[in-house]
Amino acid sequence: MSVTPVAAMVGGASDGRTPRLAFRRALGRLPVGLAPFAAFLGVFLVWPAVGVVVSAAQPVRDGSRPALLEAVSGQYGRTIIESIRLSAITSTFGAVFGTLVAAAVVALGHRRGLRNTVTGFSAVAANLGGIPLAFAFVASLGFQGLYTKLLAGAGIDLNAMGFKMSSFAGIVVVYLYFQIPLMTIVMLPAIDGLKREVREAAVVHGATPSQYWLRVGGPILAPAFLGGVVLLFANAFAAYATAYALSSGASRLVSVQIRFFLQGETITGKANLGYALAAWMIVVMAAAMSANVLLRRRSERWRS
């Protein structure tokens, strides 16, 4: 009796046990060390995400349409647009200024201690958020803040201009505090990875510094830069505690609205709407992080 090609590949006969044997052998090739990580993802990521999606598929009220559709319409849909707008603005400005800081650090690499100082501060600032960051900015640029008083003495009255820490502009300023350092950390390895031979070759062929960055350095750094923009977008889109503390829960950002519907279920009776907003938030975050992974892989080709 002849053996089929599939059975030959898995090393067994073409009976009912072949798929089972192949599956067991495939599992046997997986590293055992990944089991705790897989269990962690399953318990704290996959299971809660599935629960959110299931709750979001239920109607907000009896006889109404599913909460997933309700969450992207009317005033609820505007909260998602407001979060996307905030994330787009802070990620764009944060990426530009963070890249400029990283380029300056690399260019001034001969200065002893400069890189360590910038990297250390960026690592701390990129992970600072929540109540401490909100309090620091209220004490600095709030209605009675230190820098507000100093600027008023210099003839720049922020209060008269209508600037408030709880406004959209105020939240943008606070978010840039951790967005710029995060982009600096992201771009430092990418700029370091620009091979000196490439720049020397461009100079030998008569390229000016602007031509080099426009036609050589820029295209090489483009995947890393765009990946950083996507990472900053996801970082701002998922932020919650800082915006909540600055606005006392009155912000129209989607992360703050989720808290409003879930903790105020007895008042609003729309807990499913909070789950629906969270589900759309998961979709946006998954798309952003997938784009970031693809762009980072592309940028790593230039450093290999």
Low-confidence stretches: 1-14
Helix content: over 70%
Largest sheet: none
Classify the beta-strand content into a percent band: under 5%
Using only C-alpha atoms, the radius of gyration works out to 26 Å
Distance between the termini: 51 Å
- What letter string, H or E per element, gives the SSE order? HHHHHHHHHHHHHHH
Give the overall average pLDDT.
Answer: 83
Shape: globular
Strands, total number? 0
Number of helices: 15
Structural class: mainly alpha
Describe this structure in words.
The relative contact order is 0.12. The two termini are 51 Å apart. This protein has 15 helices and no strands. Mean pLDDT is 83; it is low at 1-14. The chain has 304 residues and is mostly helical. 76% of the residues lie in helices and 0% in strands.
Helices, strands, pairings?
Layout: H1 5-10, H2 17-29, H3 34-56, H4 67-70, H5 74-107, H6 114-126, H7 130-141, H8 146-153, H9 168-192, H10 196-204, H11 209-238, H12 241-247, H13 254-263, H14 265-268, H15 271-303
Helix pairs in contact: 3-15, 5-9, 5-11, 6-9, 7-12, 9-11, 10-11, 11-15, 13-15
